[in-house]
TrEMBL record:
Coiled-coil ranges (or none): 19-72
Keyword check for Kinase: no
Signal peptide: none
Annotated protein name in UniProt: Spermatogenesis associated 24
A single GO molecular function term of this UniProt record: DNA binding
Disordered: annotated segments: 120-166
Membrane-crossing residue ranges in chain numbering: none
GO annotation, cellular component aspect: cytoplasm; nucleus
Keyword terms: Coiled coil
Keyword Secreted: no
Species of origin: Pipistrellus kuhlii
Length: 166
């Protein structure tokens, strides 16, 4: 068998020395690989830390916005409740006014009905009621549309039997 180059012939010491050197080289390479992996892990960890810091900053900003919007919403809610209570109180006042007017009108109507009942009796013999203007209810004032050179206009005209107003 041929002896590899660099090895001494016939001595087992030189073979052992080569194996020892080879083992040392392998161990140092494994140590370098281990250190390289540690450096890679540290770099990935640092990268993750930077990303985490950025996301934390975004989160803090979003939380600040949420707080500002919550305060604004609370202010708007209070303003809405105030406006709603104002509208409710106005509606209550208007309802009260309406009830008072209805009561007043009913009182006047009852007084008028009772006075007419006293004048005409329980069964009035008057054939048709007369309006305040003095026209028969079937021949009251009506609105007519008349065309003119400047355009159509609404015009009040009295239309009685056979007497249109121009």
């Amino acid at each position: 068998m041929a002896t590899p180059v660099g090895w001494a012939q016939g001595g087992s010491g030189s073979v052992c020395l080569a194996f020892d050197q080879l083992r040392d080289v392998i161990e140092s390479q494994e140590e370098l690989i281990h250190q390289l992996r540690n450096v890679e892990e540290k770099a990935a960890h640092a990268k993750t830390k930077v990303l985490l810091a950025k996301e934390e900053e975004k989160l803090q900003f979003a939380l600040g916005e949420v707080e500002v919007l919550s305060k604004q919403l609370e202010k708007e809610k209070l303003a809405f409740e105030k406006a709603l209570s104002t509208v409710k109180s106005k509606a209550l006042q208007e309802s009260s006014k309406k009830d008072q007017l209805i009561t007043k009108c009913n009182g006047r109507r009852e007084a008028r009905v009772s006075s007419q009942a006293n004048i005409h009796g329980i069964y009035p013999s008057h054939p048709a009621p007369v309006s305040r203007a003095g026209f028969h209810p079937n021949f009251g004032p009506r609105l007519r549309i008349q065309a003119s050179p400047s355009g159509p206009h609404l015009r009040k005209g009295l239309q009685g039997p056979g007497r249109p107003r121009k």
